Amino acid sequence: MGIRSVQHPQRVAVIGVGILGAAVGWNLSRQGAEVILIDAGRPGEGVTDWSFSWVNASNKTARKSYFDLNVAGLAAHRELAGIIGPDSWWYPSGHLRWSDDPAAQAKVLETAGLLTDWGYRVEVYSGAEVRRRLEPDVPMPGDVPVLFYPDEAWVHGRRLVGRLVDQAAASGAELRSGSAVRDIRTGGDGSVRTVVLSDGNHLDVDIVVNAAGPGASHIAGLLGRHLPMRREPGVITRIDCAPVPVRRPLHAPHIEIRPDGDTSMVLHSRETDALIDTGEDPAQLGRQLHEMARRVVPELSSSRIARTRVALRPIPADGFPSVGAVPSVPGYYEAVSHSGITLGPVIGRLLAAEILSGRRDEMLADFRPERFTT
Ligand SMILES: Cc1cc2nc3c(=O)[nH]c(=O)nc-3n(C[C@H](O)[C@H](O)[C@H](O)COP(=O)(O)OP(=O)(O)OC[C@H]3O[C@@H](n4cnc5c(N)ncnc54)[C@H](O)[C@@H]3O)c2cc1C
User: Fold this and answer.
1) How far, in Å, is the centroid of ligand 1 from the Cα of 177?
2) H helices within the chain, ranges in order?
3) How far is the CA of 310 from the centre of ligand 1 (A)?
4) In sequence order, which residues have a C-beta less than 8 Å from that of residue 185 and are 6 or more positions away?
5) Please, are residues 36 and 203 in contact by the beta-carbon 8 Å criterion?
6) Domains and CATH numbers, the chain
7) Is the backbone of residue 4 left (phi > 0), alpha (psi -120 to 50) or beta?
8) Residue 41 CA: which ligand 1 atom is closest?
9) Cβ partners under 8 Å of residue 117, min gap 6
10) What's the 48 CA to ligand 1 centre distance in angstroms?
């Protein structure tokens, strides 16, 4: 795909530099737009750094169009790795899932059947085969069926954001980190005009992209728009260990485990997430995750907890992404989504094309911001 220069470059403020903002900004700047990347903190250190970060479509069967978007997300990651290079962020390792509970196991196999019907690659192994061929340090019952999704992956989100920001800067993008957006002003015709930062600076812009993750509802509110979002916190624990005894993301019974580099791993569990709002100390939740992980992978017995953090998933109220122009506020666009690690590159590409050409891609038809307009 060739790089097109726009005839009349537009000045775009991208608010939030997690995976979504970085992907939108990178796509825009390499096509000639004048981009200002704004983050209240440091790029890539929001939810993007505190995510299970599993690139998948196997967990996205709620709606076929959402599954299709996630399949496009996997392809967009592969394409991006080809363009910017895969090193230090892209790990196309495949993903394993198994269960110790017969009812849950039946459900997992039923989902695998549906995915196969939809043309998604899944292989079924015995636990013994998995240990022999894929995960030598993960004991599992020899006869339990284990699903292997070979096209799935994990991503080091913070490093990917760093790479995209560096490349966007090389194409002329400006980065303003440590500056929160305090206000967005509109002109007489209602279109966005000025972004006001916490450091007192006023930026005159033609376009604003709201990629503020869990802060997206607040940014929308600055323009009088109501973007309803769910409150769904998750707890992530990083552990230090060397060598790392797991080679890919695992959905084991009760716990999700993935590598996070050469000396680090990430742990997560929906069961632990359910305890966050009971007032349980996050450090205690981290210890629970560590204990569950050590039960699945005994090699982790000497590993240590490095850090635990509770992060809010950026989820619009109906559970699906909100991506595209908001026609009632000319110049204002949203890029807000859960599964943003999987979807960042595809949303970045589609939204940049929409901003530059006005073309609304059919793939986003079910995920338009207008559905929240009352
Ligand atoms: C526990 C957990 C597990 C997850 N697992 C997965 C998974 O396995 N696979 C997957 O695909 N997705 C997963 N997700 C979801 C995924 O991590 C997110 O969808 C994605 O990281 C969102 O990226 P973002 O760029 O929208 O948000 P962020 O990374 O949070 O970036 C938003 C940025 O906006 C900035 N910001 C906010 N307000 C302002 C303001 N007023 N002014 C300036 N800047 C502002 C913040 O500082 C932040 O850097 C998970 C999420 C959680 C919490």
Assistant:
1) 16
2) 19-29, 64-84, 102-117, 127-133, 157-170, 216-222, 270-273, 282-296, 340-357
3) 12
4) 192, 193, 194, 195, 196
5) yes
6) 11-50+157-230+316-372 (3.50.50.60), 92-151+231-312 (3.30.9.10)
7) beta
8) 47
9) none
10) 5
Q: What are the b/e assignments for 266-276, b being 16+ CB within 10 Å?
A: bbbbeebbeee
Among 26, 47, 164, 227, residue to substitute to test ligand 1 (most atoms within 8 Å of Cβ) = 47
**d(CA 141, ligand 1 centre) in Å:** 36
Residue carrying the six token digits 């019952």: 141
User: Which residue carries 């196997």 as its tokens?
Assistant: 58
Using the atom order of ligand 1, give the atom closest to the CA of residue 315: 19
For ligand 1, atom 1, name the residue with the nearest CA: 234
Tell me the C-alpha to C-alpha distance, in Å, between residue 140 and each of 130, 132, 144, 265, 321.
9, 11, 8, 19, 36
Calculate how far, in angstroms, residue 214's C-alpha sits from the geometric centre of ligand 1. Answer: 7
Q: Which residues line ligand 1 (CB under 6 A)?
A: 15-21, 38-41, 46-48, 51-54, 180-181, 211-215, 219, 234, 236, 268, 311, 313-314, 337-342
CA quadruple 283, 289, 294, 295: dihedral sign:
positive
Compute the Cα dihedral for 203, 206, 212, 218 and give only its sign.
positive
**How many angstroms does the Cα of residue 301 sit away from the middle of ligand 1?**
31
For residue 216, report the distance from its CA to the centre of ligand 1, in Å. 10
In order along its 374 residues, the chain shows pLDDT tens digits of: 333 344 456 899 999 999 999 999 999 999 999 999 999 999 999 999 999 999 999 999 999 999 999 999 999 999 999 999 999 999 999 999 999 999 999 999 999 999 999 999 999 999 999 999 999 999 988 888 999 999 999 999 999 999 999 999 999 999 999 999 999 999 999 999 999 999 999 999 999 999 999 999 999 999 999 999 999 999 999 999 999 999 999 999 999 999 999 999 999 999 999 999 999 999 999 999 999 999 999 999 999 999 999 999 999 999 999 999 999 999 999 999 999 999 999 999 999 999 999 999 999 999 999 999 86
* Nearest atom in ligand 1 to 180's CA: 42
Among 284, 283, 287, 289, residue whose Cα is nearest residue 270:
289
